[in-house]
Amino acid sequence: MILTAFFAALGQISDPRFRRVLLLGIALTIALLVAATSGFVWFIGWLTADGVSLPWIGTIT
Question: Phi/psi of residue 14, each to 5°?
Fold first, then answer.
């Protein structure tokens, strides 16, 4: 049942309306992943100081 639906969706790739929704979904997924990653890295950088001192390793800048 799942494979039948998957192959039916693959058969619709030639339809411009379906392709538009598919590419829009992929583009939004990539954009949101980049935004979430950038936000997370910025937040971690904001929380930590310029250097972090770790035991047995020393200071990491």
Answer: -75, -15
- Could you report the per-residue pLDDT of 20-57, keeping only the tens digit for each? 999 999 999 999 999 999 999 999 888 887 777 889 88
* Segments of the chain assigned E as strands: 52-54, 58-60
d(CA 41, CA 7): 39
- The tokens describing 29, both together, are 């997924």
Domain count, the chain: 1
Six-digit token string for 54:
């770790």
Residue 16 and residue 59: Cα distance in Å, rounded? 55
Amino acid identity for residue 46 in this structure: W
Domain that holds residue 19: 2-60
